[in-house]
Amino acid sequence: MTEAAKAFITPLSLQAVSGYPVSDSLLDPAAEAAMGHIELGKWADLVILAPATADLIARVAAGMANDLVSTICLATPAPVAVLPAMNPADVPCRCHAA
Q1: In whole numbers, what is the pLDDT of the chain averaged over residues?
Q2: Gap between the Cα atoms of 17 and 47, Å rounded
Q3: For the domain that residue 33 is a member of, what is the CATH number?
């Protein structure tokens, strides 16, 4: 879960609704002993980035890994589905094309 996502819903609320644990930190000491981001990437059959901010889309497209979500995207062999969350007027901009 990214910092931007936490502005919309808390990790605890998402965990309560989904019934699954929510990871929100790249440097979680308990998870990183087992390379948590790599394990999460292997576990997924599909990674869904929703809602994906323009910032997250740009970071993932550039191969940056500065938070848990972008690091999982680099580590996973699974397909990554991106569902943009942006103003419809911005969507035609070629800067968002991959």
Answers
A1: 81
A2: 18
A3: 3.40.50.1950
